[in-house]
Amino acid sequence: MPPPETMLMENAPPAPAFSFKRGTVGCLLVHGFGDTAALMEPMAVYLREQGITTTSVTLPGHGTSLHDFALISSQKLIGTVEREFAEMKEACGSVVVVGFSMGGLLAIHLATLRDVEGLVTICTPVFPRGGVLSEHVLQRAARFGALVGANIPKFGITSLSDKTLRSYLNGYNKYPSRSILCLLDLMKLTRPILKRVTAPLLVVHSQRDDVIWRESGNYIFRSVASAEKRYIVLENSRHKAPLDRDRCVLFEEVTNFCLSRA
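Above: the chain's sequence. Below: its structure in token form.
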């Protein structure tokens, strides 16, 4: 049996979304590619303890089966986040959207479509590792893989310093080539709209990230039109920052950012 962090939920029921109602400040949490809402749960609990209402939803195609995952599209993902934001906005006076990895791309799109009070991107890629050249190579490989129905093994190191947190890594252990194409498409769609982002912004990057190219964080920070923006580096964390060594630092930074939007 594979370890908890790489369990393939091939026939599992949809992973539940969760919502904690507490204060008038709301925080919409968006997980990453191949993950579920569970990855964001420790952060949500911390935010709730600080008086912040939180909502997180498992994105379409996530937490069910590889067949469902292969059918995701940029439009479906963006639409889901937009609907969740609209519902949360009715309950909270101000809403900050926090996106991890691919969730950060969706959060950026939301910030151009809706009046968000703040935007946080955590380890978010607007390029694959290696930049545009690598992107072209990956697109060709993924297109060929999609034609033959190939799956790609999970990339990056999933080990965590705190083994008690491994149960939150309950996403897929491989990715359909079609889903990789969706991720690459979402990156490409995101880059030109960054200049339309004006909401207060917090960009977070992990120094030891083994999945995301660091230049992505710098590119986001430089490209947005936000008058208020910060860039922080988590020195001791890898890609799964919400569960890694600097998670307490991350939680505190996100909390302070959310409360400053009240």
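The two ends are 46 Å apart (CA to CA).
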